[in-house]
Amino acid sequence: METRSQSPQPPGVPRWAAMFYEPSSGTWRLGAESPDRSPVVYAIGEMAQVMRARGDEVTVALWGPRDGTWQRFDAAAPVTDPAAPVTDAAVAAVAAVAPDTASRPPSQGAGQPSRLAERMHDRRHQVLMAGLSKAGLYDLTPEDVTAVRTLVDRLDEATLRRVAHWMAGAGGGAG
Predict the structure, then answer these.
(1) Each residue of 110-161: pLDDT tens digit?
(2) Cβ contacts of residue 119 below 8 Å, gap of 6+?
(3) Cβ atoms within 10 A of the Cβ of 99, count?
(4) CA dihedral over 2, 62, 98, 25, signed as positive or negative
(5) Distance CA 126, CA 160 (A)
(6) 33 vs 101, which has greater pLDDT?
(7) Fewest CB within 10 A of the end CB: N or C in the chain?
């Protein structure tokens, strides 16, 4: 069983910051920072999605300002509640999607999908995943992954953008 050190406090003045754990080196690195929480939480979702697609384990700690000092927060807490500190026993881990993020649209006829159809499918998937991230949903169950695939396959990009906007609003994001 691997033992992992707790995330160190980020350097500098308190602001919103995401510290990512790198298992290969056993160290934590600063992955995103901003004066506002929303961009950092969004970056956590995007970076976690990329890391999961590579097959990497995602461990992240969200730090932010509280009363002029650093405070560790729960990365999965809704953006509308930026004052939700992490308990001492909890390790903030965010998983954007299941490892099968490279799903492709079904074949058109007997041949492979056209390059444009594949790009549009990928764009719709990205739009929906961004909406889920803004809503604070990072760790998708197999049923969630199936639902995402179904929506991406059946809805056009404009409709998916609207759904993503609703999710961002429900999660407290700017949309």
Answers:
(1) 455 677 777 788 888 888 888 888 887 777 788 888 888 888 888 888 888 8
(2) none
(3) 12
(4) negative
(5) 10
(6) 33
(7) N
Angstrom distance (rounded) from CA 159 to CA 50: 25
- In which residue are the tokens 């159809």 written? 117
Tokens at residue 108, please?
């058109």
Question: What's the pLDDT tens digit per position in 44-67?
Answer: 888 888 888 788 888 899 999 999
Q: What global pTM score does this model have?
A: 0.47
Name the CA radius of gyration of the chain, rounded.
18
Q: Which residue from 73, 85, 90, 94 is spatially nearest to 136, judged by alpha carbons? A: 94
Of 41, 151, 159, nearest to 96 by C-alpha is: 41
Q: Please, which residues have CB within 8 angstroms of residue 97's CB and are 6 or more apart in sequence? A: 49, 52, 53, 129, 140, 145, 148
DSSP labels, 86-150: PPTT-------S-S-----PPPSTTSPPPHHHHHHHHHHHHHHHHHHHHTT--S--HHHHHHHHH
Q: Using CA atoms, how far apart are residues 157 and 78, in angstroms rounded to an integer?
A: 26
